[in-house]
Design a protein that fits this description.
This protein is α+β, with helices and mostly antiparallel strands. The chain contains 13 helices and 19 strands.
Length: about 550
Protein backbone atom coordinates (compact mmCIF):
# COMPACT_ATOMS: atom_id res chain seq x y z
CA UNK A 1 0.00 0.00 0.00
CA UNK A 2 1.66 3.22 -1.22
CA UNK A 3 2.77 5.50 1.59
CA UNK A 4 0.63 3.46 3.97
CA UNK A 5 -2.53 5.31 2.92
CA UNK A 6 -5.64 3.42 4.08
CA UNK A 7 -8.36 2.41 1.67
CA UNK A 8 -11.00 5.11 1.26
CA UNK A 9 -14.63 4.17 1.86
CA UNK A 10 -14.16 0.70 0.43
CA UNK A 11 -15.48 -2.56 1.76
CA UNK A 12 -12.68 -5.18 2.04
CA UNK A 13 -12.58 -7.53 -0.92
CA UNK A 14 -14.91 -5.33 -2.95
CA UNK A 15 -13.84 -5.19 -6.59
CA UNK A 16 -16.59 -3.62 -8.68
CA UNK A 17 -18.54 -0.42 -8.37
CA UNK A 18 -21.92 -0.99 -6.75
CA UNK A 19 -25.02 1.10 -7.17
CA UNK A 20 -26.68 2.45 -4.06
CA UNK A 21 -30.40 3.12 -4.51
CA UNK A 22 -29.98 6.64 -3.12
CA UNK A 23 -27.22 7.76 -5.47
CA UNK A 24 -27.12 8.12 -9.29
CA UNK A 25 -23.88 7.16 -11.10
CA UNK A 26 -20.55 8.82 -10.28
CA UNK A 27 -19.35 11.70 -12.44
CA UNK A 28 -16.87 10.92 -15.18
CA UNK A 29 -13.22 10.74 -14.26
CA UNK A 30 -11.26 13.93 -14.71
CA UNK A 31 -13.98 16.20 -13.33
CA UNK A 32 -14.07 17.13 -9.65
CA UNK A 33 -17.37 16.65 -7.82
CA UNK A 34 -19.44 19.80 -8.03
CA UNK A 35 -21.19 21.10 -4.95
CA UNK A 36 -23.86 22.55 -7.21
CA UNK A 37 -24.66 19.18 -8.78
CA UNK A 38 -27.58 17.04 -7.68
CA UNK A 39 -26.92 14.36 -5.03
CA UNK A 40 -24.75 11.76 -6.64
CA UNK A 41 -23.40 8.30 -6.01
CA UNK A 42 -20.75 7.45 -3.45
CA UNK A 43 -17.11 7.18 -4.65
CA UNK A 44 -16.29 4.35 -7.06
CA UNK A 45 -15.14 1.23 -5.25
CA UNK A 46 -11.58 0.02 -5.64
CA UNK A 47 -9.51 -3.04 -5.17
CA UNK A 48 -7.85 -3.15 -1.73
CA UNK A 49 -4.51 -3.45 -3.51
CA UNK A 50 -4.89 -0.08 -5.14
CA UNK A 51 -3.28 1.73 -2.23
CA UNK A 52 -5.89 4.41 -1.60
CA UNK A 53 -8.71 6.35 -3.14
CA UNK A 54 -8.69 7.71 -6.63
CA UNK A 55 -7.25 11.17 -7.17
CA UNK A 56 -9.54 14.10 -7.86
CA UNK A 57 -8.12 16.82 -10.11
CA UNK A 58 -8.37 20.39 -8.96
CA UNK A 59 -10.57 22.74 -10.92
CA UNK A 60 -8.71 24.93 -13.46
CA UNK A 61 -8.82 28.00 -11.25
CA UNK A 62 -8.09 27.02 -7.66
CA UNK A 63 -9.09 30.25 -5.94
CA UNK A 64 -10.68 30.53 -2.48
CA UNK A 65 -14.29 31.60 -2.52
CA UNK A 66 -14.58 35.26 -1.61
CA UNK A 67 -16.86 36.08 1.29
CA UNK A 68 -16.54 37.98 4.52
CA UNK A 69 -16.03 34.78 6.52
CA UNK A 70 -13.21 33.56 4.28
CA UNK A 71 -10.18 34.83 6.18
CA UNK A 72 -7.81 33.80 3.42
CA UNK A 73 -9.57 36.07 0.93
CA UNK A 74 -9.96 38.76 3.57
CA UNK A 75 -6.33 38.90 4.60
CA UNK A 76 -4.89 38.75 1.11
CA UNK A 77 -6.73 41.98 0.33
CA UNK A 78 -5.98 43.66 3.65
CA UNK A 79 -3.70 46.68 4.03
CA UNK A 80 -0.34 45.60 5.41
CA UNK A 81 -0.04 46.44 9.10
CA UNK A 82 3.22 46.19 11.04
CA UNK A 83 4.04 46.16 14.73
CA UNK A 84 7.66 47.32 14.56
CA UNK A 85 8.98 50.82 13.94
CA UNK A 86 10.64 51.98 10.76
CA UNK A 87 14.43 52.02 10.73
CA UNK A 88 16.73 54.47 8.96
CA UNK A 89 19.33 52.98 6.62
CA UNK A 90 22.81 54.33 5.93
CA UNK A 91 21.62 56.30 2.94
CA UNK A 92 18.89 57.97 4.96
CA UNK A 93 15.96 55.92 3.69
CA UNK A 94 13.30 54.48 5.98
CA UNK A 95 12.58 50.75 5.89
CA UNK A 96 10.62 48.26 7.96
CA UNK A 97 12.06 44.76 8.14
CA UNK A 98 8.77 43.28 9.32
CA UNK A 99 6.94 44.78 6.33
CA UNK A 100 9.62 43.53 3.96
CA UNK A 101 9.35 40.02 5.41
CA UNK A 102 5.56 40.01 5.17
CA UNK A 103 5.58 41.26 1.59
CA UNK A 104 8.10 38.55 0.72
CA UNK A 105 6.07 35.86 2.50
CA UNK A 106 2.87 37.06 0.81
CA UNK A 107 4.46 36.72 -2.62
CA UNK A 108 5.68 33.19 -1.85
CA UNK A 109 2.43 32.09 -0.19
CA UNK A 110 0.22 33.28 -3.04
CA UNK A 111 2.22 31.27 -5.55
CA UNK A 112 2.45 28.20 -3.31
CA UNK A 113 -1.32 28.23 -2.93
CA UNK A 114 -1.83 28.51 -6.69
CA UNK A 115 0.54 25.57 -7.23
CA UNK A 116 -0.73 23.36 -4.40
CA UNK A 117 -1.93 20.72 -6.86
CA UNK A 118 1.70 20.11 -7.86
CA UNK A 119 2.55 18.70 -4.43
CA UNK A 120 -0.85 17.49 -3.23
CA UNK A 121 -2.70 14.26 -3.93
CA UNK A 122 -6.48 14.41 -3.52
CA UNK A 123 -8.39 11.38 -2.29
CA UNK A 124 -12.10 10.88 -1.84
CA UNK A 125 -13.55 10.58 1.65
CA UNK A 126 -17.04 10.38 3.07
CA UNK A 127 -18.27 12.34 6.06
CA UNK A 128 -21.52 11.66 7.91
CA UNK A 129 -22.94 14.65 9.79
CA UNK A 130 -25.93 14.28 12.10
CA UNK A 131 -27.82 16.61 14.43
CA UNK A 132 -30.64 16.02 16.90
CA UNK A 133 -32.31 18.06 19.62
CA UNK A 134 -33.15 15.30 22.11
CA UNK A 135 -35.34 17.53 24.32
CA UNK A 136 -33.65 16.15 27.47
CA UNK A 137 -34.87 12.65 26.60
CA UNK A 138 -32.68 9.56 26.73
CA UNK A 139 -34.55 6.36 25.97
CA UNK A 140 -32.63 3.24 24.95
CA UNK A 141 -33.88 3.61 21.40
CA UNK A 142 -31.83 2.36 18.45
CA UNK A 143 -29.86 5.00 16.57
CA UNK A 144 -29.22 2.79 13.52
CA UNK A 145 -31.95 4.31 11.32
CA UNK A 146 -30.35 7.71 11.83
CA UNK A 147 -26.59 7.14 12.13
CA UNK A 148 -26.28 4.28 9.64
CA UNK A 149 -28.93 5.30 7.12
CA UNK A 150 -26.43 5.77 4.28
CA UNK A 151 -24.14 2.82 4.94
CA UNK A 152 -25.64 0.43 2.40
CA UNK A 153 -26.79 -3.12 3.00
CA UNK A 154 -23.29 -4.49 3.61
CA UNK A 155 -21.72 -1.34 5.01
CA UNK A 156 -19.94 -0.63 1.72
CA UNK A 157 -20.66 3.10 2.08
CA UNK A 158 -19.58 3.43 5.70
CA UNK A 159 -18.19 6.97 6.14
CA UNK A 160 -14.59 7.79 7.00
CA UNK A 161 -15.67 10.47 9.49
CA UNK A 162 -18.76 10.58 11.69
CA UNK A 163 -19.63 13.90 13.36
CA UNK A 164 -22.76 14.04 15.50
CA UNK A 165 -24.18 16.96 17.45
CA UNK A 166 -26.86 16.95 20.15
CA UNK A 167 -28.82 19.79 21.66
CA UNK A 168 -30.71 19.84 24.98
CA UNK A 169 -29.05 16.72 26.38
CA UNK A 170 -30.16 18.19 29.71
CA UNK A 171 -33.19 20.28 30.54
CA UNK A 172 -32.29 23.94 30.05
CA UNK A 173 -33.54 25.08 33.45
CA UNK A 174 -31.80 27.67 35.60
CA UNK A 175 -30.02 25.10 37.77
CA UNK A 176 -28.52 23.18 34.86
CA UNK A 177 -27.48 26.37 33.08
CA UNK A 178 -25.86 27.86 36.18
CA UNK A 179 -24.29 24.73 37.70
CA UNK A 180 -23.89 22.46 34.65
CA UNK A 181 -23.98 19.46 36.98
CA UNK A 182 -25.66 16.88 34.73
CA UNK A 183 -23.96 17.62 31.43
CA UNK A 184 -21.01 15.28 31.88
CA UNK A 185 -23.23 12.37 32.89
CA UNK A 186 -25.56 12.85 29.91
CA UNK A 187 -22.60 13.38 27.57
CA UNK A 188 -21.15 10.02 28.58
CA UNK A 189 -24.53 8.41 27.94
CA UNK A 190 -24.75 9.72 24.37
CA UNK A 191 -21.08 9.06 23.58
CA UNK A 192 -21.56 5.46 24.64
CA UNK A 193 -24.74 5.18 22.56
CA UNK A 194 -22.86 6.41 19.49
CA UNK A 195 -19.86 4.19 20.17
CA UNK A 196 -21.99 1.07 20.54
CA UNK A 197 -23.88 1.93 17.34
CA UNK A 198 -20.76 2.51 15.24
CA UNK A 199 -18.80 -0.43 16.64
CA UNK A 200 -21.49 -3.08 16.94
CA UNK A 201 -20.51 -6.55 15.77
CA UNK A 202 -22.92 -6.32 12.85
CA UNK A 203 -21.08 -3.18 11.67
CA UNK A 204 -17.47 -4.17 12.29
CA UNK A 205 -17.85 -7.78 11.06
CA UNK A 206 -15.47 -8.80 13.89
CA UNK A 207 -12.73 -6.68 12.32
CA UNK A 208 -12.65 -3.48 14.43
CA UNK A 209 -9.14 -2.57 13.24
CA UNK A 210 -10.45 -1.96 9.71
CA UNK A 211 -14.15 -1.31 10.18
CA UNK A 212 -14.29 0.14 13.67
CA UNK A 213 -14.47 3.80 14.68
CA UNK A 214 -12.36 5.74 17.16
CA UNK A 215 -13.61 8.75 19.10
CA UNK A 216 -11.19 11.59 18.39
CA UNK A 217 -12.81 14.11 20.74
CA UNK A 218 -16.09 15.15 22.31
CA UNK A 219 -17.01 18.56 23.67
CA UNK A 220 -20.04 19.56 25.72
CA UNK A 221 -21.52 22.72 27.22
CA UNK A 222 -24.74 22.57 29.24
CA UNK A 223 -27.18 21.04 26.71
CA UNK A 224 -24.79 20.90 23.74
CA UNK A 225 -22.60 17.95 22.77
CA UNK A 226 -20.52 17.23 19.68
CA UNK A 227 -18.60 14.01 18.99
CA UNK A 228 -16.21 13.27 16.13
CA UNK A 229 -15.25 9.70 15.21
CA UNK A 230 -12.92 8.46 12.45
CA UNK A 231 -12.45 5.03 11.00
CA UNK A 232 -9.69 3.18 12.84
CA UNK A 233 -7.27 2.98 9.84
CA UNK A 234 -7.29 6.79 9.57
CA UNK A 235 -6.49 7.46 13.22
CA UNK A 236 -2.74 7.75 12.70
CA UNK A 237 -3.27 10.49 10.10
CA UNK A 238 -5.33 12.66 12.44
CA UNK A 239 -3.56 15.31 14.49
CA UNK A 240 -3.88 18.78 16.00
CA UNK A 241 -7.30 17.93 17.46
CA UNK A 242 -8.70 20.80 19.53
CA UNK A 243 -12.05 22.03 20.80
CA UNK A 244 -13.73 25.15 22.09
CA UNK A 245 -17.14 26.27 23.34
CA UNK A 246 -18.87 29.65 23.16
CA UNK A 247 -21.84 30.57 25.33
CA UNK A 248 -24.18 33.26 23.99
CA UNK A 249 -27.26 32.61 26.10
CA UNK A 250 -28.34 34.39 29.28
CA UNK A 251 -26.36 37.66 29.68
CA UNK A 252 -24.72 36.90 26.34
CA UNK A 253 -22.40 34.32 27.86
CA UNK A 254 -24.28 31.43 29.48
CA UNK A 255 -24.33 28.03 27.84
CA UNK A 256 -28.06 27.54 27.36
CA UNK A 257 -27.41 28.83 23.84
CA UNK A 258 -24.19 28.91 21.87
CA UNK A 259 -21.88 26.50 20.12
CA UNK A 260 -19.33 23.76 20.70
CA UNK A 261 -16.70 23.05 18.06
CA UNK A 262 -14.00 20.50 17.25
CA UNK A 263 -11.24 20.93 14.69
CA UNK A 264 -8.64 18.49 13.41
CA UNK A 265 -6.15 17.90 10.66
CA UNK A 266 -7.31 14.87 8.67
CA UNK A 267 -4.34 13.83 6.55
CA UNK A 268 -3.40 17.34 5.35
CA UNK A 269 -6.90 18.82 5.22
CA UNK A 270 -8.12 20.99 8.07
CA UNK A 271 -11.69 20.29 9.15
CA UNK A 272 -13.91 22.05 11.67
CA UNK A 273 -17.25 20.82 13.07
CA UNK A 274 -19.55 23.26 14.87
CA UNK A 275 -22.70 22.25 16.76
CA UNK A 276 -24.86 25.18 17.82
CA UNK A 277 -28.18 25.96 19.45
CA UNK A 278 -29.29 29.48 18.52
CA UNK A 279 -31.90 31.84 19.97
CA UNK A 280 -35.48 30.56 20.08
CA UNK A 281 -38.90 32.08 19.22
CA UNK A 282 -40.31 32.62 15.78
CA UNK A 283 -39.91 36.39 15.74
CA UNK A 284 -36.31 36.47 17.01
CA UNK A 285 -34.47 36.28 13.69
CA UNK A 286 -32.03 39.04 14.62
CA UNK A 287 -31.10 37.18 17.80
CA UNK A 288 -30.28 34.03 15.86
CA UNK A 289 -28.15 35.97 13.39
CA UNK A 290 -26.26 37.59 16.26
CA UNK A 291 -25.70 34.23 17.98
CA UNK A 292 -24.20 32.81 14.80
CA UNK A 293 -21.81 35.73 14.40
CA UNK A 294 -20.75 35.49 18.06
CA UNK A 295 -19.99 31.77 17.83
CA UNK A 296 -18.14 32.21 14.54
CA UNK A 297 -16.01 35.09 15.76
CA UNK A 298 -15.31 33.98 19.34
CA UNK A 299 -14.42 30.31 18.90
CA UNK A 300 -10.66 29.81 18.93
CA UNK A 301 -8.48 26.70 18.82
CA UNK A 302 -5.07 26.83 20.49
CA UNK A 303 -3.08 24.42 18.31
CA UNK A 304 0.36 25.94 18.68
CA UNK A 305 2.60 27.90 16.31
CA UNK A 306 4.15 24.77 14.79
CA UNK A 307 0.75 23.55 13.63
CA UNK A 308 -0.16 26.95 12.20
CA UNK A 309 3.15 27.15 10.33
CA UNK A 310 2.60 23.69 8.84
CA UNK A 311 -0.89 24.61 7.65
CA UNK A 312 0.50 27.76 6.06
CA UNK A 313 3.32 25.81 4.42
CA UNK A 314 0.76 23.44 2.89
CA UNK A 315 -1.00 26.41 1.29
CA UNK A 316 -4.15 26.11 3.42
CA UNK A 317 -4.03 29.25 5.53
CA UNK A 318 -3.19 32.88 5.03
CA UNK A 319 0.39 33.81 5.84
CA UNK A 320 -0.92 36.68 7.97
CA UNK A 321 -1.58 34.17 10.77
CA UNK A 322 2.20 33.75 11.23
CA UNK A 323 3.27 34.25 14.81
CA UNK A 324 -0.08 33.06 16.18
CA UNK A 325 -0.74 29.67 17.73
CA UNK A 326 -4.53 29.79 17.41
CA UNK A 327 -7.04 29.35 14.61
CA UNK A 328 -10.63 30.47 14.15
CA UNK A 329 -13.54 28.55 12.68
CA UNK A 330 -13.14 30.08 9.22
CA UNK A 331 -9.41 29.19 9.11
CA UNK A 332 -10.13 25.67 7.84
CA UNK A 333 -10.42 23.97 4.48
CA UNK A 334 -13.96 22.83 5.30
CA UNK A 335 -16.35 23.86 8.07
CA UNK A 336 -19.42 21.74 8.85
CA UNK A 337 -22.07 23.65 10.82
CA UNK A 338 -24.92 21.66 12.35
CA UNK A 339 -27.50 21.98 15.08
CA UNK A 340 -30.82 23.38 16.14
CA UNK A 341 -30.46 26.75 14.44
CA UNK A 342 -34.06 27.57 15.39
CA UNK A 343 -34.95 29.40 12.15
CA UNK A 344 -38.70 29.14 11.53
CA UNK A 345 -41.24 29.73 8.77
CA UNK A 346 -41.75 33.48 8.36
CA UNK A 347 -44.54 35.00 10.45
CA UNK A 348 -46.30 36.23 7.31
CA UNK A 349 -47.87 32.75 7.12
CA UNK A 350 -50.32 31.82 9.87
CA UNK A 351 -49.55 28.87 12.13
CA UNK A 352 -52.59 26.93 10.91
CA UNK A 353 -51.53 27.31 7.27
CA UNK A 354 -47.97 26.17 8.07
CA UNK A 355 -49.39 23.11 9.83
CA UNK A 356 -51.69 22.28 6.94
CA UNK A 357 -48.97 22.61 4.29
CA UNK A 358 -46.50 20.61 6.40
CA UNK A 359 -48.96 17.76 6.86
CA UNK A 360 -49.61 17.72 3.11
CA UNK A 361 -45.90 17.84 2.30
CA UNK A 362 -46.34 21.01 0.22
CA UNK A 363 -42.71 21.98 0.73
CA UNK A 364 -42.48 24.17 -2.37
CA UNK A 365 -44.80 26.68 -0.64
CA UNK A 366 -42.89 26.60 2.63
CA UNK A 367 -39.27 26.79 1.44
CA UNK A 368 -39.44 30.42 0.17
CA UNK A 369 -40.62 31.49 3.64
CA UNK A 370 -37.91 29.67 5.56
CA UNK A 371 -36.16 32.33 7.65
CA UNK A 372 -32.69 30.88 7.18
CA UNK A 373 -33.06 30.84 3.40
CA UNK A 374 -34.29 34.44 3.51
CA UNK A 375 -31.46 35.64 5.75
CA UNK A 376 -28.81 33.83 3.71
CA UNK A 377 -30.12 35.25 0.44
CA UNK A 378 -29.86 38.75 1.94
CA UNK A 379 -26.29 38.10 3.11
CA UNK A 380 -27.13 38.62 6.78
CA UNK A 381 -26.03 35.21 8.07
CA UNK A 382 -24.04 32.13 7.01
CA UNK A 383 -22.57 34.01 4.07
CA UNK A 384 -20.48 31.70 1.90
CA UNK A 385 -22.02 28.57 3.45
CA UNK A 386 -23.91 26.06 1.35
CA UNK A 387 -26.90 23.89 2.17
CA UNK A 388 -28.80 21.22 0.32
CA UNK A 389 -32.42 21.61 -0.74
CA UNK A 390 -34.95 21.03 2.04
CA UNK A 391 -36.71 18.01 0.55
CA UNK A 392 -38.00 16.70 3.88
CA UNK A 393 -40.93 17.70 6.07
CA UNK A 394 -40.16 20.21 8.85
CA UNK A 395 -38.49 18.57 11.83
CA UNK A 396 -40.21 20.55 14.64
CA UNK A 397 -42.52 20.44 16.60
CA UNK A 398 -43.88 16.90 17.23
CA UNK A 399 -45.64 15.10 20.00
CA UNK A 400 -42.78 13.12 21.55
CA UNK A 401 -42.90 9.46 20.60
CA UNK A 402 -45.09 10.10 17.55
CA UNK A 403 -44.91 11.38 13.99
CA UNK A 404 -47.73 13.85 14.62
CA UNK A 405 -47.21 17.60 14.89
CA UNK A 406 -47.97 18.96 18.35
CA UNK A 407 -51.58 20.19 18.34
CA UNK A 408 -52.89 19.05 21.71
CA UNK A 409 -55.24 21.61 23.32
CA UNK A 410 -53.23 21.89 26.53
CA UNK A 411 -50.02 22.70 24.57
CA UNK A 412 -49.11 25.96 22.90
CA UNK A 413 -49.66 25.71 19.15
CA UNK A 414 -46.40 26.23 17.28
CA UNK A 415 -45.78 26.43 13.54
CA UNK A 416 -43.74 23.53 12.18
CA UNK A 417 -40.23 24.55 11.12
CA UNK A 418 -36.91 23.32 9.75
CA UNK A 419 -35.07 24.14 12.96
CA UNK A 420 -32.48 21.39 12.54
CA UNK A 421 -29.96 22.10 9.78
CA UNK A 422 -26.59 21.13 8.32
CA UNK A 423 -24.48 23.57 6.27
CA UNK A 424 -20.88 23.66 5.13
CA UNK A 425 -18.27 26.22 4.11
CA UNK A 426 -15.36 25.17 1.86
CA UNK A 427 -12.33 27.13 0.70
CA UNK A 428 -12.49 25.01 -2.47
CA UNK A 429 -16.26 24.64 -3.00
CA UNK A 430 -15.92 22.37 -6.03
CA UNK A 431 -14.25 19.68 -3.91
CA UNK A 432 -17.26 19.10 -1.63
CA UNK A 433 -20.45 17.40 -2.74
CA UNK A 434 -23.52 16.63 -0.66
CA UNK A 435 -24.89 13.18 -1.40
CA UNK A 436 -27.86 13.04 0.97
CA UNK A 437 -29.73 15.49 3.19
CA UNK A 438 -32.62 13.93 5.06
CA UNK A 439 -34.46 13.58 8.33
CA UNK A 440 -34.83 10.29 10.18
CA UNK A 441 -38.13 9.03 11.53
CA UNK A 442 -36.39 7.06 14.27
CA UNK A 443 -35.55 7.66 17.05
CA UNK A 444 -38.66 9.71 17.81
CA UNK A 445 -38.66 10.26 21.59
CA UNK A 446 -38.09 14.01 21.16
CA UNK A 447 -40.19 16.84 19.80
CA UNK A 448 -37.51 17.22 17.07
CA UNK A 449 -36.67 14.72 14.33
CA UNK A 450 -33.00 13.84 13.74
CA UNK A 451 -31.37 15.19 10.57
CA UNK A 452 -28.38 13.76 8.73
CA UNK A 453 -26.25 14.35 5.66
CA UNK A 454 -23.49 12.41 3.92
CA UNK A 455 -20.95 14.47 2.02
CA UNK A 456 -18.13 13.43 -0.25
CA UNK A 457 -15.07 15.65 -0.19
CA UNK A 458 -11.49 15.68 -1.42
CA UNK A 459 -8.85 15.14 1.25
CA UNK A 460 -5.39 16.60 0.79
CA UNK A 461 -2.34 14.41 1.13
CA UNK A 462 0.73 16.63 0.78
CA UNK A 463 3.86 15.04 -0.67
CA UNK A 464 6.63 16.79 1.29
CA UNK A 465 9.51 16.38 -1.26
CA UNK A 466 7.35 17.87 -4.02
CA UNK A 467 6.31 20.73 -1.76
CA UNK A 468 9.90 21.53 -0.85
CA UNK A 469 10.87 21.49 -4.54
CA UNK A 470 8.18 24.11 -5.24
CA UNK A 471 9.44 26.24 -2.36
CA UNK A 472 13.05 26.01 -3.55
CA UNK A 473 12.02 27.04 -7.05
CA UNK A 474 10.06 30.03 -5.76
CA UNK A 475 12.83 31.12 -3.44
CA UNK A 476 15.25 30.91 -6.37
CA UNK A 477 13.02 33.15 -8.48
CA UNK A 478 12.65 35.57 -5.59
CA UNK A 479 16.38 35.66 -4.95
CA UNK A 480 17.16 36.39 -8.60
CA UNK A 481 14.61 39.17 -8.61
CA UNK A 482 16.01 40.64 -5.41
CA UNK A 483 19.54 40.50 -6.79
CA UNK A 484 18.43 42.34 -9.93
CA UNK A 485 16.72 44.91 -7.74
CA UNK A 486 19.88 45.79 -5.84
CA UNK A 487 21.22 49.26 -6.77
CA UNK A 488 24.42 49.30 -8.83
CA UNK A 489 26.63 52.29 -9.75
CA UNK A 490 29.98 52.78 -11.41
CA UNK A 491 32.66 55.52 -11.08
CA UNK A 492 34.91 56.71 -13.85
CA UNK A 493 37.79 56.72 -11.39
CA UNK A 494 38.48 55.01 -8.05
CA UNK A 495 41.09 57.52 -6.82
CA UNK A 496 41.09 61.30 -7.03
CA UNK A 497 44.59 62.86 -7.16
CA UNK A 498 44.61 66.65 -6.89
CA UNK A 499 48.42 66.77 -7.17
CA UNK A 500 50.30 69.52 -5.34
CA UNK A 501 47.76 71.84 -3.75
CA UNK A 502 48.83 75.06 -2.00
CA UNK A 503 47.11 76.55 1.04
CA UNK A 504 44.08 78.60 0.05
CA UNK A 505 44.13 77.21 -3.49
CA UNK A 506 40.84 75.85 -4.89
CA UNK A 507 41.12 72.79 -7.12
CA UNK A 508 38.25 70.84 -8.75
CA UNK A 509 38.19 67.57 -10.62
CA UNK A 510 35.18 65.93 -12.35
CA UNK A 511 33.81 62.62 -11.02
CA UNK A 512 31.29 60.75 -13.16
CA UNK A 513 28.82 58.49 -11.31
CA UNK A 514 26.64 56.23 -13.49
CA UNK A 515 23.62 54.15 -12.48
CA UNK A 516 24.32 50.76 -14.09
CA UNK A 517 21.49 48.90 -12.37
CA UNK A 518 17.80 48.57 -13.12
CA UNK A 519 16.52 50.38 -10.05
CA UNK A 520 16.85 53.78 -8.45
CA UNK A 521 20.21 54.30 -6.70
CA UNK A 522 20.86 56.78 -3.93
CA UNK A 523 24.28 58.04 -2.84
CA UNK A 524 25.80 60.69 -0.60
CA UNK A 525 29.19 62.09 0.41
CA UNK A 526 30.09 61.53 4.03
CA UNK A 527 33.07 62.70 6.11
CA UNK A 528 35.97 60.41 6.83
CA UNK A 529 35.74 58.48 10.07
CA UNK A 530 38.81 60.13 11.61
CA UNK A 531 37.65 63.68 10.96
CA UNK A 532 36.98 65.55 14.18
CA UNK A 533 34.68 68.19 12.77
CA UNK A 534 31.41 67.11 11.13
CA UNK A 535 31.06 68.38 7.61
CA UNK A 536 27.96 68.79 5.58
CA UNK A 537 26.97 65.68 3.63
CA UNK A 538 25.20 65.72 0.32
CA UNK A 539 22.59 63.07 -0.60
CA UNK A 540 21.72 62.64 -4.25
CA UNK A 541 19.67 60.25 -6.32
CA UNK A 542 20.31 58.73 -9.71
Amino acid sequence: MADGIPQWAVAPGHQQQQQHPRYPPQQQAGHPPSAAAQPSQMPPQQSPASGGGSNIPLPPASVPKTNKFNRIAQMEDKVLMTRTRDEETEDGRLCNKEAMTKIRDAWVYKRVRSRAKEFTDYKQALCFVGTWNVNAKGKEESLDDWICADWGQNGQYAPDIVAVGFQEIVDLNAVNVAVDNKTQQRSLFWVERLNSTLNSESRTKNDPQKRGYVLMMQRSMVGLLICVFVKAPHQRRVKAVAADSVGVGVMGMMGNKGGVAIRMQFYDSTLCFVCSHLAAHRENVVGRNADFVNVLSKASFDVGEDCVREVIRNGSLSQWASGSGSLGIADHDIVFWLGDLNYRIDESMHVEMVLSLSEKGALEKLRPLDQLNIERSEGRVFEGFEEGVLNFIPTYKYQPGTDVFEQRPEKKLRAPAWCDRILWLAQEPALVQQLTYQRSERPNCSDHKPVYSTLRFAVKDVIAPRREAVYQELFGVLQRYENRSLPSISLDRNNIDFGMVRYGQSVTLPLHISNTGSTCAQYRFIPKLDEVRKSNSVSLQL
